[in-house]
Amino acid sequence: MKLTHTLALASMLSGAAAFAQTRSTGPVSTPPGATAAPSMSTMAMTPTAVLSLLHQVNQDEIRLGQLAQSKATSSKVKDYAKDMVKDHGDLDKQVNDLASRNGLTLGPSSIPTEKRTQLVNMTQSTDRQLATATGGQFDREYMRAMSEGHGTVLADLDGALPSLKARDDRVYDLVKSARDKLETHKKHADEILRDLGNTATGGSGTGR
Questions:
Q1: pTM, whole model, 2 decimals?
Q2: Does domain 46-195 have CATH number 1.20.1250.20?
Q3: pLDDT, tens digit (0-9, with 9 covering 90-100), for 81-111
Q4: pLDDT digits over 54-68, tens only?
Q5: Which distant-in-sequence residues (6+ apart) come within 8 Å of 171 by Cβ?
Q6: Which residues are bridge partners to 17 per DSSP?
């Protein structure tokens, strides 16, 4: 199976990623431990659309994790970024293998337009924030993006899971497992934000 990788760098998110509205347009951030409400487009997604969403999020998380490994100053942030590269790399392999076994072609065109636009906007906002941030500011911006992005994707998957269970048990099982892993990622991100002297709902902070 030939997977479609046509999103430009700015349109790759996780979020992830992430991942709700962008911070640049004044959204209400997702509090630690909470998830955003899923959109109607998310709840209506087909198995191919959900796997395409996960694939896109994985690619974005890997890219941002690699960036954070080189720019972060906190050892906890660097370790978190390393885990993101590994965990989302492993998850992406599972997603691609399942799609291949079932003859599914993954790509951005399979994601509902509303959700695809949201991912693009979130990625562009995160890229702008991280491009100029350095030192402790970068650490906080990256971890905040991880918390907010994972919260958004958790809501997306929670909204999609009920229909997946009725449509395809294999996809449901993978997505449920991914959802639980992403919840762990969000909780860990929230913990690191608190350690940095900031919260997911706060400003840029004054910590290191």
A1: 0.75
A2: no
A3: 999 999 999 999 999 999 999 999 999 999 9
A4: 999 999 999 999 999
A5: 47, 50, 51, 98, 164
A6: 14, 15
